[in-house]
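From the pipeline queue, job 12 of 40. The input is one protein chain; the requested action is below.

Action: predict structure.
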Amino acid sequence: MNLILFAAGLAALIVGASLLVRGASRLALSLGISPLVVGLTVVALGTSSPEVAVSVGAALDGRTDLAVGNVVGSNIFNVLFILGVSALIAPLIVQVQLIRQEVPVMIGASVLLIALCGGGALTRLESGFLLALLAAYVTLLVVQSRRASAAEQAQITPDVVRRGDSATWDRHRGVQAMLVAAGLILLVLGSDWLVTAAVAFARALGVSDTVIGLTIVAAGTSLPEVAASVTAALKGERDIAVGNVVGSNTFNILGCLGLAGLVAPGGLPVAAAILNFDLWVMLAVALACLPVFFTGREIARWEGALLLGYYVAYTAYVVLAAQQHDALPLFSQALLWFAVPLTLLGIGVSLHSSRRASSGSQDRMR
């Protein structure tokens, strides 16, 4: 039965992602909203609905570690795994708005969450504050996009959409909205089925709830983001591919934990292990987006491979730490003395290449 659920969930994710990306990109054009903003709002909020369902349900059941761990683990997974895989498929062009506004907002939300959780819990008042910030952020994005000039809209419209499509059946807004809704429904159902099957497999193998929450459930509830971003990258909708990840991370913090904290009796306690380690990893991953995005405003394939490698390393660390394995100290030292210098070297090389390319273009203009 679990194998059937897994296969059905995978199929639903593939079909749902295709419908969502098609409907969202065309709806953006008809409403005069940029595909980037659609990725940051409609697609991001929709694909984050599994995180909402899991975190709110866990909070109501009193499983607060799972509620918080799901969001933190999903945010780490979104940047390291999804952007990594998407960049391996096709180098991702990063819009200036992401660098100047959206990534700083994601980083600010991460810092705010750590500050609010410093006392060991997220109170209902603090949760309501997070939700209010989310509403203000979404409103700002829509207003900014509608005010953009027609020329700016044309520049950020994906090439695939600009060239047009021979199909006429999805030109009407009602059909486009139905595609978005159908895609979201399939994504939510597919992720639920996959998570159910994966958790059953993990428990049969004796994996602890802590590891399940930070890895399997977090990755499972992020599968809609995986499907949407990978499909968008394959179709050339690079704004949606990147915007979906950044928007989902912001929504996970402000929306998922905001709702979970409101419904949890007495607020949302945060485990010491998550507060002392995983929250800081989430912040470090968010901060890592700035140098990656700045280097030529592109996430190159080698940067995608580096992000993917970091997720594998993080997952291995979580598993070893949960088991208190003897290899944990050696593994930690290897990450500190090998992975960090490698990253700094890669960023330095990329910055140097970007400067040389910029200087070369200026010389040609002269």
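Job complete. The chain has 15 helices and four strands.
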